[in-house]
């Protein structure tokens, strides 16, 4: 075999589902080809998702903080209606993104066994692929492949969805101004995060959600509290709607939707469709292999192997859950598996995540509903962050902690926290559910005072 065109492992997609496996396999001595269609390593998470959206949130949160400084004995003049230098925010974003992409590429290029190629890969048979870069074509053979091409925004089949001024989440990440008004179609993690970011920056925001509530799969009590918070901050949240059409052009749009049998309209300068994402299989050449997929994702077994022996898939391409850290955990597990090492494939019952709403909503393990659906007999111990010392000191004593535990052995199977700072509580939460700690074990740990994490011990000790 030609060593220039033949690889131990071909990895398609340089996001969190592809790059970690590429590096781990190359570090272990495998000859690996990593192909990325974009212009840098990092995927949706780095260029259009996790990182840029949190960069925007940081600016929005700082603006909000400045506006509340008077409550902390620091009255500043003219914080009300403070303008936002949006081009400076976008420049800061580009700076962070390019620095991170350069760092990832430098690390990848330092590994002798790893070839990184920027181009589009397409499978041509179960053990071969073609890579197209500009006008050039290169054919490669491989022993194993990992497909990690992620997901793309799902379009809405309604009139006006393809109007030039109607954006998806990538369009919002690239937007050149803070809109006066913004209508978001979809109240999932993207809709909620964007709603609060732009509302904090001064936009008049409407969220139109088809389901009975925003953030359908998360803890219902916390989603309800967050929904109240959004409404209290002037965001219009409509649930149970059926969006019918988008009209308008340039800077003025009208969204028509039905709600409880009545037709309503909302006017907005910018409309964004953020109604879910689906696996990115287009042009991947899956039809030349036995790999099977449907609209939810590529079919895989417990070792993330597809129906084509030797070809694996990870991350958003496999479907829900769609999180960067989940994609990375899968990627590293596939690498270990291919190296013949014991691999712990990630278990959804142990996943953790944070919705970067305001306040943050963190979750690890099962919700109460998911535990019941799994046939577990569970109870919930709750803590109200209004009485919490740290939350009171921070000036935002709002939110709830909910520990879902099994009634038989008092093991905690789910941790759900809505409080500003919840993101940093999820490390402990992930360990609690991953290792099945009991209420008594968590209660016995000494949590420092005054911190938000104290609530874990207090809630565990106070459970019936
Ligand atoms: C607005 C937004 C905010 C988000 N925020 C968070 C967050 O805060 N936390 C979190 O955990 N998750 C977040 N996510 C989800 C997260 O971005 C994804 O779950 C994660 O990026 C999935 O990683 P992946 O590697 O599977 O796919 P991707 O990151 O999408 O990477 C796939 C890569 O494959 C490349 N590719 C596609 N086709 C080909 C081809 N034929 N040849 C070569 N390369 C190809 C693409 O260019 C892309 O770089 C967010 C997503 C969005 C859209
Ligand atoms: N902080 C994070 O970890 C984070 C942040 C953003 C996105 N993400 C990930 O990215 C993925 C995509 O996020 P998303 O929010 O687009 O998807 P989602 O599928 O999680 O939510 C989409 C929402 O849109 C609603 N919807 C669907 N069709 C609709 C319609 N016609 N009209 C109105 N509402 C409609 C759905 O009911 C749902 O509530 C998610 O899987 C999520 O895990 C994660």
TrEMBL record:
<feature type="domain" description="Pyridine nucleotide-disulphide oxidoreductase dimerisation">
    <location>
        <begin position="353"/>
        <end position="457"/>
    </location>
</feature>
<keyword id="KW-0274">FAD</keyword>
<dbReference type="GO" id="GO:0004148">
    <property type="term" value="F:dihydrolipoyl dehydrogenase (NADH) activity"/>
</dbReference>
<feature type="binding site">
    <location>
        <position position="209"/>
    </location>
    <ligand>
        <name>NAD(+)</name>
    </ligand>
</feature>
<dbReference type="InterPro" id="IPR023753">
    <property type="entry name" value="FAD/NAD-binding_dom"/>
</dbReference>
<dbReference type="GO" id="GO:0050660">
    <property type="term" value="F:flavin adenine dinucleotide binding"/>
</dbReference>
<keyword id="KW-0520">NAD</keyword>
<dbReference type="InterPro" id="IPR050151">
    <property type="entry name" value="Class-I_Pyr_Nuc-Dis_Oxidored"/>
</dbReference>
<dbReference type="GO" id="GO:0006103">
    <property type="term" value="P:2-oxoglutarate metabolic process"/>
</dbReference>
<keyword id="KW-0547">Nucleotide-binding</keyword>
<keyword id="KW-0560">Oxidoreductase</keyword>
<feature type="disulfide bond" description="Redox-active">
    <location>
        <begin position="45"/>
        <end position="50"/>
    </location>
</feature>
<protein>
    <recommendedName>
        <fullName>Dihydrolipoyl dehydrogenase</fullName>
    </recommendedName>
</protein>
<keyword id="KW-0676">Redox-active center</keyword>
<dbReference type="Pfam" id="PF07992">
    <property type="entry name" value="Pyr_redox_2"/>
</dbReference>
<feature type="domain" description="FAD/NAD(P)-binding">
    <location>
        <begin position="7"/>
        <end position="330"/>
    </location>
</feature>
<feature type="binding site">
    <location>
        <begin position="186"/>
        <end position="193"/>
    </location>
    <ligand>
        <name>NAD(+)</name>
    </ligand>
</feature>
<dbReference type="InterPro" id="IPR036188">
    <property type="entry name" value="FAD/NAD-bd_sf"/>
</dbReference>
<feature type="binding site">
    <location>
        <position position="54"/>
    </location>
    <ligand>
        <name>FAD</name>
    </ligand>
</feature>
<dbReference type="InterPro" id="IPR001100">
    <property type="entry name" value="Pyr_nuc-diS_OxRdtase"/>
</dbReference>
<keyword id="KW-0285">Flavoprotein</keyword>
<feature type="binding site">
    <location>
        <begin position="322"/>
        <end position="325"/>
    </location>
    <ligand>
        <name>FAD</name>
    </ligand>
</feature>
<dbReference type="Pfam" id="PF02852">
    <property type="entry name" value="Pyr_redox_dim"/>
</dbReference>
<dbReference type="InterPro" id="IPR012999">
    <property type="entry name" value="Pyr_OxRdtase_I_AS"/>
</dbReference>
<feature type="binding site">
    <location>
        <position position="276"/>
    </location>
    <ligand>
        <name>NAD(+)</name>
    </ligand>
</feature>
<dbReference type="InterPro" id="IPR016156">
    <property type="entry name" value="FAD/NAD-linked_Rdtase_dimer_sf"/>
</dbReference>
<comment type="similarity">
    <text>Belongs to the class-I pyridine nucleotide-disulfide oxidoreductase family.</text>
</comment>
<feature type="active site" description="Proton acceptor">
    <location>
        <position position="449"/>
    </location>
</feature>
<dbReference type="InterPro" id="IPR004099">
    <property type="entry name" value="Pyr_nucl-diS_OxRdtase_dimer"/>
</dbReference>
<keyword id="KW-1015">Disulfide bond</keyword>
<feature type="binding site">
    <location>
        <position position="316"/>
    </location>
    <ligand>
        <name>FAD</name>
    </ligand>
</feature>
<feature type="binding site">
    <location>
        <begin position="149"/>
        <end position="151"/>
    </location>
    <ligand>
        <name>FAD</name>
    </ligand>
</feature>
């Amino acid at each position: 075999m030609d060593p220039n065109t033949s690889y131990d492992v071909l990895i398609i997609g340089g996001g969190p589902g592809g790059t970690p496996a590429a590096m781990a396999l190359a570090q272990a001595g495998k000859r690996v080809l990593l192909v990325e269609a974009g212009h840098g390593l990092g995927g949706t998470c780095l260029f259009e998702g996790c990182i840029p959206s949190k960069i925007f949130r940081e600016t929005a949160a700082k603006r909000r903080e400045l506006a509340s400084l008077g409550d902390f004995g620091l009255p500043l003049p003219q914080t009300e209606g403070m303008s936002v230098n949006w081009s400076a925010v976008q420049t800061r974003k580009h700076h962070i993104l390019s620095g991170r992409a350069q760092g990832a590429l430098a690390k990848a290029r330092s590994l002798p066994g790893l070839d990184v190629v920027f181009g589009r890969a397409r499978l041509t048979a179960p053990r071969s692929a073609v890579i197209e870069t500009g006008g050039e074509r290169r054919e490669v053979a491989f022993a194993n492949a990992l497909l990690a091409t992620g997901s793309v925004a799902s379009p809405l089949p309604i009139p006006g969805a393809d109007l030039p001024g109607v954006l998806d989440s990538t369009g919002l990440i690239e937007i050149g101004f803070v809109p006066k008004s913004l209508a978001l179609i979809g109240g999932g993690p993207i809709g909620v995060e964007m709603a609060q970011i732009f509302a904090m920056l001064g936009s008049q925001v409407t969220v139109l959600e088809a389901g009975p509530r925003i953030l359908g799969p998360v803890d219902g009590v916390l989603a309800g509290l967050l929904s109240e918070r959004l409404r209290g901050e002037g965001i219009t949240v409509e649930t149970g709607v059926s969006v019918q059409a988008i009209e308008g052009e340039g800077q003025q749009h009208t969204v028509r939707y039905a709600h409880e049998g009545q037709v309503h309209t909302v006017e907005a300068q910018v409309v964004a469709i953020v109604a879910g994402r689906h696996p990115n299989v287009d042009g991947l050449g899956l039809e030349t292999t036995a790999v099977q997929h449907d609209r939810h994702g590529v079919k895989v077994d417990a070792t993330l192997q597809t129906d084509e022996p030797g070809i694996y898939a990870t991350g958003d391409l496999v479907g829900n859950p769609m999180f960067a850290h989940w994609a990375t955990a899968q990627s590293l597990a596939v690498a270990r598996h291919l190296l013949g090492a014991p691999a712990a494939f990630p278990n959804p019952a142990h996943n953790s995540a944070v919705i970067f709403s305001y306040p943050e909503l963190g979750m690890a393990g099962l919700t109460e509903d998911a535990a019941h659906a799994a046939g577990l007999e569970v109870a919930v111990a709750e803590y109200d962050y209004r009485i919490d010392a740290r939350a009171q000191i921070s000036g935002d004593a709002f939110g709830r902690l909910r520990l879902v535990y099994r009634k038989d052995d008092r093991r905690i199977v789910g941790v759900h926290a809505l409080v500003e700072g919840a993101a940093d509580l999820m490390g402990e939460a992930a360990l609690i559910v991953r290792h099945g700690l009991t209420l008594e074990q968590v209660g016995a740990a000494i949590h420092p005072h005054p911190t938000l994490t104290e609530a874990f011990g207090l809630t565990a000790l106070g459970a019936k």
